[in-house]
Design a protein that fits this description.
The structure is a homodimer of 479-residue chains. With 479 residues, chain A is α+β, with helices and mostly antiparallel strands. The first copy, chain A, has 15 helices and 18 strands. In chain A, strands 15-12-14-13-17-18-16 form a 7-stranded antiparallel β-sheet, with helices on both faces. The first copy, chain A, has a 5-stranded antiparallel β-sheet with strand order 5-6-10-8-9. The longest helix of chain A is centred in the C-terminal third of the chain and has 20 residues, at 388-407. Chains A and B meet through strand 9, helix 7, strand 11, helix 8 and helix 10 of A and strand 9, helix 7, strand 11, helix 8 and helix 10 of B. Chains A, B: Residues 36-215 form the FAD-binding PCMH-type domain.
């Protein structure tokens, strides 16, 4: 990128918010995904939608890649500037413009931290359910770009289910608005939902209107321990079949339990092979009834121990143990590769067994935990990226895991996105005609291909990894 | 369309399922929308996805318009073959393939009648919430094409919120599948949700997988009568502000009440100016508590009478009165034009007042009822299409109503779609850049523009109305 273009960027965002020193570029050369890293040519931090539009116009004119990002907690290499260009950081656009208590909506900039949104709306008795593992550092813009999930997906759905309106800037620099505060709106194609999960490949989202719910007045947490994982998986199916939809049904396998216990010292019984953490919310009475019925099902499916949290604090601690899983696993080996193969929930047990078989076949340490109620697994490989031979086996194993998920009616990614990491596998899920259609949709937004190039669609011939891969040392807190 | 092409169509679907006699074509020349009618060149009724694909290949090759439809209950002229061509009727694809009680999904063909889906899933204790007024005759394919709403949108959302997977045929004849039974799935762009509400302009949907919920065990219905509409609207806001989300909050203005009473004789008090019909579902206790609190709010906001249905049967009767609104209104004058301008619910009262002012200004009879909880109004003009002067005033009035809705942060259509009727107004909502973007999305699917041409995007120069407009006599049951 020549100095003339950099000067244009500087004049748009101001000197302070355009960076191009090697140290500054390095900071934006990676995200939370191991194995992917590349240097951008410049980093800009626009302060309003007009500046975003002006930056995109320059990028479009000179055909410069634009990689928009927030906190970079992405787990699919989606915010790594693999073709260089401009990293556009949206964190300055973090204003919560409004919590509308009559229409039950919140409107905010993409830089707003997810947990800050939670806190602000809960303060007035409202509720924004999606809670990705990274919520304390992730931005809502990132959540929208990836269609972030979390632990409450079973009952409450994912980010897409809450995004009602979007303001975005097209690569041409045009500012567009779709949706809004209307509970029903069928005016043309649903571009709002199309942008959710589009991974920065179509437009830069500059304002978001999200739907809120009343905050459930009560919540209770319980755990159940099992001697085998199949019983735990069967419990999940039985609870759903009993027409109870808990807010959360998480599971940890034995290996994950051991690592979490070692990390968090919360007294997990390590002679057990699996555990479920279940949370229900609603009115106090309903929660009590549901939890009692769930506990009964857990026992009838062979749970060795079922424990109800006696206080909110104890419940929060159990959930924190689950949330600590990735951090705990990340301590064990230099490289932690967290996947999110997902299957229809009835196939959960089969999928977990297949992950086990595949791990043994390739002689790898794969711990599995995740959102059991959603069929959303996180098989997590503890490895060392410096060991090229082992990394090769890891790649083979995950390829088999994706194939296994697809065979079970599942998908290659439940909540982390395609990014770089799964670009080579998308056709498994959507087929060649689906791939071509998605590429044409991409072109409809971005005819010159400047928006996050190389993501979603495999493009190995243009891959540009300019920094050697390195052990990932930044905070892990994302699953 | 020449005989050679017709022969090709016949050889694909069989003689019995290709029709081109004037009488048969006439049947498919209109839908439930007054003022729009045009003759197709042929009607085909394919029996499987391969036949749909083969028909589309022929149409694409010869650049013949394809208008896909089910029962034709459309209210925006969306299924009128305004440029001739082939009407592709999906009603033969009506099989309910599966109700999956473990994954809480149903998979079916687009020809399945909405109410049949309701009945089948409710028989096993499950629930598909969207309930458009036309549900006893509308098909699920039509519901998906229009993103149908209904009376339970406030708590349960609309069709889009339930469609998890789609099989569709592109204009090229390629068969594509997106989504599936996974609670979480972010593999590429969300083409599933993009197809929902795309009004037959992108692809022909040939199979649908929908999310189901557990059927709520209890339900209660109540009505509240008011001396003025503003108090009714304020009640709606107060209920939401009290963090109660009823399943249904419908309102009828005085004019609609009078017409419904004349039609259904259910004893509506005609000295009242407005009524709310409110339904809550859930567990018996929760329903009882919510209904009690709602009744209290109704009274404190000035409801003159609040009545709780004492039995399920009485509740069903009250709901039936609301469902009869359109049929009742349709009896009054030869032509009934039902609109669905929608605003954020907090602006409901303002919008209703503005509709009133506009009706008086143009000296028109406009009755208003609708989904108060969603801000989704149905201002309904009782007129006579043979009176060209009055129809001109109707058009002016509705144009003002759309402008008023947009000014209040609303939209031109909440649940009926853009079709022909609102194609000229879409830019009010999405702006010129949004229009251009939507046209490019359309081209990504349909480069030759054969899919339902003239719909969504105004194209007045190519409009082809080959049959004179006529009083609409077929069943009205759609709002």
């Amino acid at each position: 990128m020549n100095q003339e273009i950099k000067s244009q960027l500087q004049s748009i965002v101001g000197d302070r918010w355009m960076m191009d020193s090697p140290n500054e570029l390095y900071v934006y050369s990676y995200d939370a995904t191991p194995l992917y890293q590349a240097m951008p040519d410049a980093v800009v931090m626009p302060g309003n939608v007009e500046e975003v539009a002006a930056v995109l116009k320059v990028a479009n004119q000179y055909r410069i890649p634009i990689v928009s990002r927030g906190s970079g907690t992405n787990l699919s290499g989606g915010t790594v500037p693999t073709e260089g260009g401009i990293v556009l950081v949206t964190n300055r656009l973090h204003t919560l413009h409004e919590v509308d208590q009559e229409n039950l909506t919140a409107t905010f900039g993409p830089g707003l931290i997810t947990a800050d949104l939670h806190r602000e709306v809960e303060a007035v008795g409202l509720f924004y359910p999606p809670d990705p593992g990274s919520m304390r550092i992730s931005t809502m813009g990132g959540n929208v770009a990836e269609c972030a999930g979390g632990m409450r997906g079973l009952k409450y759905g994912v980010t897409k289910d809450y995004i009602m309106g979007i303001e975005a800037v097209l690569p041409s620099g045009e500012i567009v608005r779709f949706g809004g505060k209307n509970a029903k709106d069928v005016a043309g194609y649903d571009v709002t939902k199309l942008l959710v999960g589009s991974e920065g490949t179509l437009a830069v989202v500059t304002e978001i209107t999200a739907k809120l719910l009343p905050l459930p007045p009560a919540k209770q947490t319980m755990v159940a321990y099992y001697q085998d994982l199949t019983s735990a998986a069967r419990t999940v199916q039985r609870v759903i079949a009993a027409k109870i939809i808990p807010a959360t049904m998480e599971f940890l396998d034995h290996a994950t339990m051991a690592v979490v216990e070692d990390f968090a010292r919360i007294g997990l019984p390590l002679d057990m092979k699996a555990m479920l953490i279940i949370e229900q919310d609603g009115t106090a009475l309903q929660v009590e009834q549901d939890i009692a019925r769930i506990a009964e099902i857990c026992r009838s499916e062979g749970a060795t121990e079922v424990r109800l949290a006696q206080t909110a604090d104890e419940g929060a601690k159990l959930m924190a143990a689950r949330r600590a899983a990735l951090s705990a696993l990340a301590r064990v080996k230099p490289t932690t590769i967290l996947e999110d193969a997902t299957v229809p929930r009835a196939n959960l047990a089969t999928m977990v067994e297949q992950v086990d078989v595949i791990a043994r076949r390739y002689d790898l340490q794969i711990c599995t935990f995740g959102h059991a109620g959603d069929g959303n697994l996180h098989p997590t490989c503890l490895t060392d990226e410096r060991d090229r031979e082992e990394i090769h086996r890891v790649e083979q194993a995950f390829e088999e895991i994706f194939h296994a998920a697809i065979k079970l009616g599942g998908t290659i990614t439940g909540e982390h996105g395609v990014g770089m990491a799964k670009a080579g596998f998308l056709d498994l899920k959507v087929g060649p005609s689906g791939m071509e259609l998605m590429k044409r949709i991409k072109e409809a937004f971005d005819p010159h291909g400047i928006m996050n190039p190389g993501k979603i669609f495999a493009k190995s011939d243009r891959r540009r990894v300019v920094v050697k891969t390195h052990a990932c040392t930044h905070e892990h807190n994302h699953a």
